[in-house]
């Protein structure tokens, strides 16, 4: 078993981003600037946004976290997004999901100018990604592709099974793996809660991407000998063992699956760190005007 080490790869790529950010700052007279909007106080979202902001500072970006109470209206939120869309000193805008029930996430996603949509969730970016055109790629799938690229893993012709069809991970991941690119050129099966014979489907995968949000869902019996296993799960459980008061578990039963896998990502220390890298790369590209 070989480890796909998110700690190592993210640190290397962040060094490159830092150099490019300094070059941008010297030329433009300002830093690349990411704004993150956080509504309410969901524990997971608070942690993720804080980490995004901290990493922006680390690579020399400016970052702004705008916080709203859970009762902000959809119209008020859209008004703020419109204001940021017009602000030339802001390069990237993300609205952390999930949002409270009275706010439609699709309306919010479409309100963001696609040229500042560094989450890559806007339908324009999604459509352009499907066509292999320049676009912002959603951060988690982007980070996974960067990790496969870093380790030079040959994916062409392989059977990839993605477990979970979310807009944020599973669905875009299936598109990227099927695209005519390296990494890519896989034969992709996108599985979900209504898939028949899920175990057999996963067993057929040379590459398995687990993104269902259920602790230890993928067991050793579901994985082919020699498979490449990517664990996107970040399942939080309260724990007295850690300083933070919680412990993270992946969607994959790491101990058992690692014995069969040729490559595997750990949790923590795997995909989560690469997601941040995907977001930072998109923000830098937005600042440089490299895509739009
Ligand atoms: N919630 C979980 N993952 C993400 C992400 O990548 N971006 C945003 N905006 N919200 C999320």
From TrEMBL:
Pfam families: THF_DHG_CYH, THF_DHG_CYH_C
Listed GO biological process terms: L-histidine biosynthetic process; methionine biosynthetic process; purine nucleotide biosynthetic process; tetrahydrofolate interconversion
CDD domains: NAD_bind_m-THF_DH_Cyclohyd
Domain (Tetrahydrofolate dehydrogenase/cyclohydrolase NAD(P)-binding) ranges: 138-288
Catalysed reactions, semicolon-separated: (6R)-5,10-methenyltetrahydrofolate + H2O = (6R)-10-formyltetrahydrofolate + H(+); (6R)-5,10-methylene-5,6,7,8-tetrahydrofolate + NADP(+) = (6R)-5,10-methenyltetrahydrofolate + NADPH
GO MF terms, alphabetically ordered: methenyltetrahydrofolate cyclohydrolase activity; methylenetetrahydrofolate dehydrogenase (NADP+) activity
Keyword Cell inner membrane appears in the UniProt entry: no
Segments traversing the membrane: none
EC number: 1.5.1.5, 3.5.4.9
Pathway annotation from the record: One-carbon metabolism; tetrahydrofolate interconversion
GO cellular component term of the entry, any: cytosol
Domain of life: Bacteria
Residues where NADP(+) binds: 164-166, 234
Keywords: Amino-acid biosynthesis, Histidine biosynthesis, Hydrolase, Methionine biosynthesis, Multifunctional enzyme, NADP, One-carbon metabolism, Oxidoreductase, Purine biosynthesis
Tetrahydrofolate dehydrogenase/cyclohydrolase catalytic domain ranges (all copies): 4-119
HAMAP family per the UniProt record, alphabetical: THF_DHG_CYH
Role played: Catalyzes the oxidation of 5,10-methylenetetrahydrofolate to 5,10-methenyltetrahydrofolate and then the hydrolysis of 5,10-methenyltetrahydrofolate to 10-formyltetrahydrofolate.
Known partners and oligomeric status: Homodimer.
Protein family according to the UniProt entry: Belongs to the tetrahydrofolate dehydrogenase/cyclohydrolase family.
Listed name of the protein: Bifunctional protein FolD
The species this protein was found in: Sphingobacterium deserti
Gene: folD
């Amino acid at each position: 078993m070989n480890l796909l080490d998110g700690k190592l790869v993210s640190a290397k790529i962040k060094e490159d981003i830092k150099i490019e950010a300094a070059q941008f700052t010297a030329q433009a007279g300002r830093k690349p600037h990411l704004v993150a909007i956080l509504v309410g106080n969901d524990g997971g979202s608070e942690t993720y946004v804080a980490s995004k902001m901290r990493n922006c500072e680390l690579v020399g970006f400016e970052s702004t976290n705008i916080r709203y109470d859970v009762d902000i209206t959809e119209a008020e939120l859209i008004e703020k997004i419109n204001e940021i869309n017009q602000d030339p000193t802001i390069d990237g805008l993300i609205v952390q999901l999930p949002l409270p029930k009275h706010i439609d996430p699709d309306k919010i996603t479409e309100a963001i100018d696609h040229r500042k949509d560094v989450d890559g969730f806007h339908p324009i970016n999604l459509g352009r990604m499907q066509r292999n055109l320049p676009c912002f790629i959603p951060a988690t799938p982007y980070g996974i592709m960067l990790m496969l690229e870093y380790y030079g893993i040959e994916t062409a012709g392989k059977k990839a099974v993605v477990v979970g069809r979310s807009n944020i991970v599973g669905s875009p991941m299936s598109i990227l793996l099927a695209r005519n690119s390296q990494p890519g050129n896989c034969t992709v099966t996108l599985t979900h809660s209504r898939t028949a014979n899920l175990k057999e489907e996963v067993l057929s995968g040379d590459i398995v991407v687990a993104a269902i949000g259920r602790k230890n869902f993928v067991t050793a019996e579901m994985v082919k000998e020699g498979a490449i296993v990517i664990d996107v799960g970040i399942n939080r459980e309260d724990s007295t063992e850690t300083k933070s008061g919680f412990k993270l578990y992946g969607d994959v039963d790491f101990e058992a699956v690692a014995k069969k896998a040729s490559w595997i990502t750990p949790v923590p220390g795997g995909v989560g760190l690469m997601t941040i890298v995907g977001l930072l790369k998109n923000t830098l590209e937005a600042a440089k005007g490299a895509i739009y």
